[in-house]
Amino acid sequence: MSCRVVGMGELLWDLLPGGREVGGAPANFAFHAGSMGAEAWVVSRVGRDEAGAELLEQLHRMGMSTGCVERDDSLPTGTVEVEVGVGGEPRFRIREGVAWDNLRGEAAAVEIVGGADAICFGTLAQRCVPSRSAIRRLLRAARPHALKVLDVNLRQEYHSPEVIRESIELADVVKVNEQELPRMAEALGLPRDPATCLGRMAADHGLRAVVMTRGGAGSLVLADGRWADHPGVPTQVRDTVGAGDSFTAAVTLGLLSGWDAERVSHAANQVASHVASCPGATPRLPDSLRSLFLPSSPHPLMTTVDPRHPL
User: Fold this and answer.
1) Fold of the CATH domain 4-293
2) Distances (CA, A) of 28 to 23, 34, 145
3) Three-state SS at 8
4) Nearest partner of 271 among 260, 286, 258, judged by Cα
5) 274-283: per-residue pLDDT in tens?
């Protein structure tokens, strides 16, 4: 797939029960987009410490570029303690005062973002003023037609109605999960009913697509005026860390390829189901899933379009 996508925001070590792994939603997004065939970059910042050096080495081993990962001389590399609860659902304790809070958006990032076809950003990395300012400045550096994807990531107390409202104004696509949607609805003054909320969100903010994931129950997607209500893929869940990020990557590449809501939903649910069946956030995709993103891949049959909620 000849497109460039960028994930910008947090890059850190996920401290999982089975050991530490590369983490952070933008990094997970970039990894999965790259595994689907895109030229993928992560824009972030790590400490000039041992943890940061090891994180960069691991990115290299994963086949990811570190050319847009800044180094911080004073703040440490970020970490998140991850506990996996019932049903594989993670609980996070996110360290404060870390390098990705001090993202600057240096020249390398400006160049890469300026040539990107899609840029994914979130709410978590905007918890501090330096990184929030850098993310918004980089978004302004993007080409007008670049797809700007807001991956809502409401962790702990690191969000506010103002950040939600300001972020959605910068986006063309919004992805949210079913637990986050009520808080999104409250911040935007919208009804809590999912279909009504998503439809109003798209109409009020001129969005190309809005997506709600529902864990094992699939997703609800509105893209280019068409709905797809996908029931999900039966999965033996190991943990759900990174599954939502892989879903976002699949949606982004599908939209860049001009797919309709049904095809986007099919591919994204297949990919996220596989990631949830594996430990950790960045398992390799099998060839059968990678082939979904080849230009010659046939359109899967879908019977889950929901016509009850027109835009």
Assistant:
1) UDP-N-acetylmuramoyl-L-alanine:D-glutamate ligase (3.40.1190)
2) 6, 10, 24
3) strand
4) 286
5) 999 998 889 9
How far, in Å, CA of 225 to CA of 115, rounded? Answer: 28
The per-residue pLDDT for 280 is 84
**Domain ranges across the chain:** 4-293
Question: What ranges in 62-128 are assigned the alpha helix state H?
Answer: 107-114
Give residue for tokens 């808080």: 183
Residues in a beta bridge with 21? 14
**Which residue matches tokens 């835009």?**
311
Statement: residue 308 has pLDDT above 50: no
Nearest partner of 95 among 75, 81, 83, judged by Cα: 81
Separation CA 95–CA 76 (nearest Å):
10
Residue carrying the six token digits 């506990």:
83
Place of tokens 């696509």: 173
pTM score, whole prediction: 0.92
Question: Residue 117: how many CB atoms within 10 A of its CB?
Answer: 20
- Give the distance between the most distant pair of CA atoms in the chain: 54
| φ/ψ of residue 109, rounded to 5 | -70, -40
- Which two tokens mark 70? 């800044």
Higher pLDDT, 304 or 32: 32
Q: Retrieve residue 257's tokens.
A: 């390829």
Structure tokens that stand for 288 in this block: 């059968």
Q: CA nearest 7: which of 194, 150, 127, 144? A: 150
Distance CA 277, CA 234 (A): 10
Q: What is the helix, strand, coil percentage profile of the chain, to 5? A: 40, 25, 40
